[in-house]
Amino acid sequence: MNGKLYLTMLKTNGRTLSSYALGSALYIWLIIWIYPSIAGAKGFNEIIQKMPESLLKAFGYSHGFQDLNGFMAGEFYGLLFLIILSIYCIMMATQLIVRLVDRGAMAFLLASPTSRTQVAFTQAMVILTGLLLIVLMTIIGGLTGVEWLVNDVSLKTKPFIWLNVMGLLLFFVVSGYSFLFSCLFNDEKRALSMSALLTLLFYILDLIGKMSDKMEALRHFSIFSLFDAQAIALGTESLPLKAVGLLVSGILLYIIGILVFRKKDLII
């Protein structure tokens, strides 16, 4: 890894990274802050349970809002968390490799005594640093929010930490194939669209699989099936094997991306 390039890229993209991280933390504070009023509403869980079962399963409300963990899983980790990190992974992976190639800026990096492997690996580390920062700020936001914003509300810490760890590993994979596309193509729009379409396809397959028992097999083709926020929040999900699978998949995707970038013909 090239230390100077790493620090430069962190500085260049610092505002973007901090905005994603701060936004995630602030939103989870909002979720925690409104939870007591939702939990205190009479019959709210009964109303939720009367909704169509397929809809509840699709959007992570099948267990209702029995506690703060379940509420956060449904209101934040079931959708908004996925959107925030999907956008971050796709956009950042595109910006740090293929955008530089497409706009000719990669020529300046490769003109220095820095190998292609060092450049690609350094850019990968910038992506992962930002991803880790967002998840860490989300965890800190959740833990501090319970202490500062609400009274007589407890957070089950272990399931909450696992929820974030599995989210981190899931988007390690998303950022991995986004990075691979960024290394594979010379056109920014093409790499961006491929990453976005694949992510959307994975999400739709998981969503359809949850909405219909007849279509449940589709979930096997989606990485989002490995992140069942409600089950993780309730502590009913078996996680170690899934975590290892996501970790290995992410590492392989990044390695392949670096190898592709090292050997490809660049238009610079």
Largest sheet: none
Q: What overall form do the CA principal axes indicate? A: globular
Can you tell me the residue ranges where pLDDT is under 50 for at least 5 consecutive residues?
none
Mean pLDDT: 85
Describe this structure in words.
There is one protein chain. It is built from 13 helices and no strands. The chain has one domain (3-263). By secondary structure, the chain is an all-alpha fold.
Task: Give a quick summary of the entry.
Helix content is 75%, strand content 0%. With 268 residues, it is mainly alpha-helical.
Features:
globular, 268 residues, mainly alpha
Secondary structure topology:
Elements: H1 3-12, H2 14-39, H3 44-49, H4 53-58, H5 68-77, H6 80-96, H7 98-102, H8 106-111, H9 116-149, H10 157-184, H11 188-211, H12 229-234, H13 240-263
